[in-house]
Write a structure and sequence with these properties.
Layout (H helix, E strand, L loop, with lengths): L1 H7 L2 H31 L4 H28 L2 H20 L4 H15 L2 H12 L5 H29 L2 H19 L14 H20 L2 H18 L5 H8 L6 H20 L8 H19 L2 H4 L2 H28 L6 H30 L1 H21 L1 H4 L7 H6 L6 H18 L3
Helix pairs in contact: 2-7, 2-8, 3-5, 3-6, 3-16, 4-5, 4-6, 4-8, 6-16, 7-8, 7-12, 7-15, 10-13, 10-16, 10-17, 12-15, 13-15, 13-17, 16-17
């Protein structure tokens, strides 16, 4: 209780999560509005709908890792403020787009401006809360975000029904503006490192980027989580944006069901994140990643059988189950990023993970769109649901094998984080392993 009270009295943290919650709320207004605009107003087919997450993913793939290095070296608060305000303007342009062929480039440009936000946010958390409160901060922030995911689609879907998808998108413009204003009130001595000019700055930049990858390769936990995430994320992305396609087939006269389902996912995520808030730390990542994938698989596979029952309540229940899995997965990822890498490298590591997974945000929707074209939307959901279930069970059953900590502690890597030579770091790790073996009693 004392820990919770301490973090809730942290004015900077309260402002941070308030701004983040508001931006998330607006994003969900936006997301529902864009999906309904594309499918119901512009009659986009599954392939064109699959381009929506691709517009979000391309900037992360191309610029994500460099954005992480930049965020680690600059004032994170200012980055978030300017990013919010720039996206507010682009969102306003999006609301008045006359066709999807103009909306898609705007989505791409807005995502490009926002690519710097994730590493800046991750890096800022460690500057405004103490180490012992990291799990609390991650779960509280996650709870607020999931609450936005519950409220956002419901309100956004209601505004779509009463007004229009464009009105729901405009609300996101307002959210971004206010979020930036709140962040401008933060009182933080952000220890941004000033870059040097010319060749020296370029050398430092590349060295920091190389150092981020060395941390990943020398941390089995990070590497195993990324590899597991590649398989599960690819499968999830094949159907994520296609829920609106599924519901337009099963419930053609009820477009609001997309917003309801997303809200149900948010409720499930919120409840499990609140439950996880009681944990001090996460030790067995396989149980968490595996259970998350399993529950999302149950939701996806269940969606594939909805037409046999044509019951909206069943869709909501399945979405709730998937939401629990989603909440477990997101909390685990956020905790992993905050605790496994060195503090000074959090922005870089989060960007590396984000850029790798963003590649799947392109491959997944395209594969999903093609699968729906070939098999039909219901059969595609059934097949992908089975695949996700198998991946989840693999994570649970092979937890000890995949996430075994038979490696140097992360703190050993942190000790040498200033060493920009990857080979030197590898030699250090080998030396530590030899000393450990020689010290073991026979």
């Amino acid at each position: 209780m004392m820990k919770e009270t301490a973090i809730r009295r942290n004015g900077n943290f309260i402002k941070f999560i308030s701004a983040n919650a508001l931006a998330n709320l607006g994003n969900w207004f936006d997301y529902v509005g864009v999906l309904i605009l594309f499918r119901y107003s512009w009659n986009a087919d599954p392939i064109l709908i699959a381009l929506i997450p691709i517009m979000y993913a391309i900037p992360s793939i191309v610029l994500g890792q460099f954005a992480g290095v930049f965020a680690d070296q600059r004032n994170k608060r200012k980055i978030l403020i300017y990013s919010d305000w720039a996206r507010a303007l682009l969102t306003l342009f999006l609301a008045f787009s006359p066709s999807l062929f103009i909306a898609l480039p705007i989505l791409l440009l807005r995502s490009t401006v926002g690519v710097i936000s994730l590493p800046a946010q991750q890096g800022l958390i460690s500057k405004i809360v103490e180490d012992k409160d990291i799990m609390k901060a991650v779960t509280i922030n996650g709870s607020i975000s999931q609450l936005a995911k519950v409220i956002g689609p419901l309100i956004g879907g209601s505004f779509v029904s009463i007004f229009s998808p464009e009105f729901s998108i405009i609300l996101n413009t307002i959210s971004f503006v206010i979020s930036g204003l709140i962040l401008s009130r933060l009182q933080i001595k952000d220890q941004a490192k000033k870059g040097n000019s010319g060749v020296k700055e370029q050398y430092v930049f590349l060295s920091l980027w190389k150092e981020g990858w060395s941390i990943v390769f020398n941390s089995k936990i990070l590497l195993a989580s990324i590899i597991f995430g590649i398989f599960s994320t690819l499968t999830i992305q094949m159907i994520d944006v296609q829920m609106v396609t599924l519901f337009s087939v099963v419930f053609p006269n009820v477009p609001e069901v997309t917003g309801w389902a997303i809200s149900a996912i948010g409720i499930g995520s919120l409840l499990i994140v609140l439950l996880l808030n009681h944990l001090e730390k996460i030790q067995k990542y396989g149980w968490f990643f595996g259970t998350g994938g399993l529950l999302i698989g149950i939701m996806t596979g269940g969606f594939g059988y909805l037409q046999e029952y044509n019951i909206i309540l069943l869709a909501i229940i399945l979405a709730f189950i998937g939401g629990i899995g989603n909440g477990i997965t997101l909390t685990t990822i956020n905790y992993l990023v905050q605790t496994e890498p060195p503090k000074e490298a959090i922005g870089r590591i989060s960007s590396i993970i984000d850029s790798i997974l963003s590649i799947l945000f392109i491959a997944g929707p395209l594969l999903g769109g093609l699968m729906i074209k070939q098999l039909g939307v219901l059969k595609a959901f059934q097949t992908i649901g089975l695949g996700l279930t198998i991946i989840g069970l693999t994570g649970i059953l092979l937890q000890k094998l995949i996430w075994n900590r038979n490696q140097p502690a992360t703190k050993d890597i942190i000790q040498y984080e200033q060493d920009k030579d990857v080979e030197t770091l590898k030699e250090y790790v080998k030396d530590k392993q030899k000393k450990s073996k020689s010290a073991t009693p026979s």
